[in-house]
Specification:
Length: about 120
C-alpha cells in the first residue's frame, strides 16, 4: 500500500502556493479599495501646475475655455472650444496614471493619488 506522501508528493507545496496566492490577492484587492478614496486630478497648462482637483466631490470646474466635470471618482472634459473635440470624446478617466489631453488648449489632466 502506498503512503500519503507517495500518492500526493506535492500536496504540501500546492497548499502553500494556493495560500500565498490567496493572501496576495486579498492584499492587492484591499489596497485598490483604499486607493479609491484619495484620488486627485492634477491639471497642467503649458507644462505648469494649474489645479489639483479632488475626485471625491462631484463638481464642475473651469479651466480656460474648458469645463471639467468630476463625478463618482472620475473626471472628464465636458466641453471645450477646441476644433476636434478629442478631449471631450475621450470621456471619463479614473485610474491612477491615466491622462486626458487637450492639445489646442495645452492642457493635460493626470490621475494621481497624491494631492
Amino acid at each position: 500500500m502506498k503512503t500519503h506522501s507517495q500518492l500526493y508528493p506535492f500536496f504540501l507545496e500546492d497548499l502553500t502556493l494556493i495560500g500565498v496566492t490567496i493572501l496576495l490577492s486579498i492584499a492587492l484587492f484591499s489596497s485598490s479599495i483604499s486607493d479609491d478614496k484619495g484620488r486627485w486630478a492634477i491639471v497642467y497648462v503649458n507644462n505648469h501646475l494649474s489645479q489639483k482637483i479632488s475626485l471625491n466631490t462631484p463638481k464642475v470646474y473651469t479651466q480656460g475655455h474648458m469645463l471639467l466635470q468630476v463625478e463618482a471618482g472620475k473626471i472628464r472634459v465636458r466641453s471645450s472650444d477646441c476644433p476636434e473635440q478629442i478631449c471631450v470624446h475621450t470621456g471619463w478617466i479614473s485610474q491612477k496614471g491615466q491622462i486626458l489631453v487637450c492639445a489646442p488648449n495645452h492642457v493635460l489632466i493626470e490621475i494621481s493619488h497624491a494631492p
